[in-house]
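Structure ticket #2291
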Amino acid sequence: MHARVHITLKPGVLDPQGEAVRHALGAIGFNGVNGVRQGKVIDLDLHGIEPAQAEEQVRQMCEKLLANTVIENYTVEIL
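Resolution: structure written out below.
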């Protein structure tokens, strides 16, 4: 079984990497990009577990380690 976690900064949290990408896009001719938010994707391979239990375990992983829930949101996909 495969799980994918998408982690993004919460709205209103400063995203300096996204701002750097936005600036760089303008510098190389891609005008009109008003905002960029950068995030991360974490893929996990899980074995010997039911889908519902896998989703709960991955959510616990996010709460305890993978995401900083003070400033980040996350979504979990079981594939």
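Closing remark: Strands lie at 2-9, 39-45, 72-78.
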